[in-house]
Each structure stands twice: as structure tokens, then as C-alpha cells.
Amino acid sequence: MKNDIYEKMEILSNSAKYDVSCSSSGVETNYKKGELGATHTSGICHSFTPDGRCVSLLKVLLTNICIYDCAYCINRISNDIPRAVFTPRELADITINFYKRNYIEGLFLSSGIVKTEDHTMTLILKALKILRYEYKFNGYIHVKLIPASSMELVEQIVKLANRVSSNIELPSDKSLKLLAPNKTKEKVLQPLKFARDLSLEKNQKPIGMSTQLIVGATPESDRDILKLSSALYDKALLKRVYYSAYIPVNDDRNLPSIVSKPPMLREHRLYQADWLLRFYDFSWEEIVTDEFPNLDEDLDPKAFWAINNLKYFPMEINTASKEELLRIPGIGARGVFKILKARRFKRLTFDDLKKLKISIKKAKYFITCDKEFQKQVPFYRENIRTALIKPEVKKIIQPSLFDISSITGEL
């Protein structure tokens, strides 16, 4: 057990790096004159707020001691690794010292489980009380709730935090039972449900909540993962689901090889699909189907959906509804707004779209402009897919002697 504060910091910040379920985008805090951390729309470490600011927070564990033995976790009880634990006072002091030095705008606090779930949550609560009441810290705090802890402790922490999370980690009960026998989906979601219901009872704005799903540690398909995410969004339980490509840290027969690479591209595609769920009115059944249960790693999810649903295309730019336009690959919400505004005055052509600075690199295979349609690629699934993933070869033109002399001013 490490006692030196610097050694503790190194161990516990390093142990926290595998948790990606922390965000504060859109979170607002109330400014109170004379108090520290009076910020608004704060953000997470190395992330960006809606207004484009890059912001940071202290991301650390209270302790990496844990009584659980989750197969995928570096901090599991059966691992022989250096262990450390902050006292609530040490954690609060470090947070304030980092804030005063302008290193951070807030705190993301997670923890292993030391002794019991309630004991760990009590330590977290003590640290938050020191920050909020003693130091008058009014900045952003995100707390990862401990599954199976008492609802009284959850209620007190929710009152002091700006955001909370509870990580499901694995998409199915079968995988949880195999790799994390101490956890169940019900235990993980219980504190989040309580926090949501508590805010509804008191007619308050729900606290921001999130979770993390590990991608690639178990055999579940993208369809399984997006189905779960969609259900959590539909129940108004979560603001965000975070997807984390599995990084092999333990050698276990139930996990991918220790030398296997994290599925980073798959993680990226899931984030793109999640965006379609939350902002483009797609359902998970549309994005991934029984025929195609996994996302195409060569295509973004909207293009993947489009080539599998060519019956809706080509779509006429001048007559399609807003909802239809949003489903055209390569055209986002801002582009749709420009199209709807411009076509009130004239029928749009491909040249008009270029003048509006709307990229048609992908869209041209799925649209007509004033009945004009691209002729280069036949309107068949495989032809369009090939055209979308094939890199464009740009011709390199060797400058002539005249071109060179005109640039340099020499004969």
C-alpha cells in the first residue's frame, strides 16, 4: 500500500484512464460570488464544450483497491498491482490545488470498492462535502456511483454532484455473469433510476447521467449494443452512452488475447450510430438489422443504412421533407437548413449545392437536383458502396518550365 501522496496520485490517476463515461457538455452551475469554481458549461479532460472550448478535469480514483474480480478490469482483486487509497481530505486538497493552478475546471471521481459498497460511497460523500461546504467549491463534479450502495447515500451524492454515472460495462446479462459475477444490470442501473425518479418527484431538472459499454470484450453484435443504448435513451435514464474499445489488460480464457488490438474503428462507428439515434431520429432497428447485425467499418452508419435501403433513393433535393433530407449520406443538419432556406427562392441544382458549400462527395449518389442525377456510378448497392470507400486518386500535374518561372520570377 502506497502512502506518499505523489505515488498515490500516479497510481490512482493511471488506474482511472480506462473509464470513458465522463462528460460535462452542457452542464451549468450557479455562479456564487466569492466561491471557487464558479464556471458554466464546463467540460471533461481533453474534450470540447458546445461552444468549442477545450476543457479539462481531474480524473482519478478514490482507490484502486477492489473487492470485485471483474475479468476485464486492471483493478480486480486477483491482480497483483500497486494499491493506493486517498483519504477524503487528500482528494479534496488535491482538487483545490489543481484548480487554483488552473490545471482543471472540475473533478471526475470514480473508485474501486474498498471493504463494502456503502463504505466506499461514504468516503466519496465525505470528499464532496469538504469540497462543497468547506472549500466552497462551486465547480463541476462528476461521480461514478457504486452499484448496490444504499439509496440514502446516492441521494446525498446526487445533491452535490453535477453529473453521475454507473457503468454497465457489458451489453448482456450472460456476459456480466461470466466476466463480472459481482455485477448485474439491475444493480448498475438502480442508482441511476433512483436519481431520475428523485428529480421527477421533486419536479426538478434531472441530473445528467451516463454509462459505459465495453466494445469487443464479448461476442455481442453492434445490434445488441445499440438496442440496449436505445432502450436506455427511451427511458430517459441517460444523457449519454459511452463506448470503450476493449483494451486487453488481463490474460483470461474468457477474453480476447492479451496481444489483440483494441477495436477502435468499431468504437468510432458506434459513436456515429449513437449520434443518429439521438439527433437524426433513426431507430436502432434501421441502423442494424438481422441481415446486417454489425456496422460496416468501411462506411459511416448513415451511408451503410442508405445503401441497404436504396428504395428511398434517389431523393429529389427540391421536394424532399426535412426528415428525408437528414437521411441523405454526407448532408448534416446545417446543410439541410441551408437547402430548406435556399429552395424557397429557386429550384436547386448541383452547382447551387456547391455554392452553398454543401459537400456532395457522398450525397451525389443518393440525390437528384432538379431531376438531374449523377451518371458515373450505376445505381446498385455494390457499385455505390465501392464508390464510397474507394479513395479518390488525384492527378499530380508536373508544372511546366513556364509555370515555375512565373512563380519564382526567373526566366
UniProtKB/TrEMBL annotation:
SUPFAM superfamilies reported in the protein's UniProt record: Radical SAM enzymes, RuvA domain 2-like
Cofactor(s), by name: [4Fe-4S] cluster
Superkingdom as given in the UniProt entry: Bacteria
The keyword Protein transport belongs to this UniProt entry's keyword annotation: no
GO molecular function: catalytic activity; iron-sulfur cluster binding; metal ion binding
Coiled coil: none
PANTHER family: ENDONUCLEASE/EXONUCLEASE/PHOSPHATASE FAMILY DOMAIN-CONTAINING PROTEIN 1, TYPE II SECRETION SYSTEM PROTEIN K
Name of the protein this chain belongs to: DNA modification/repair radical SAM protein
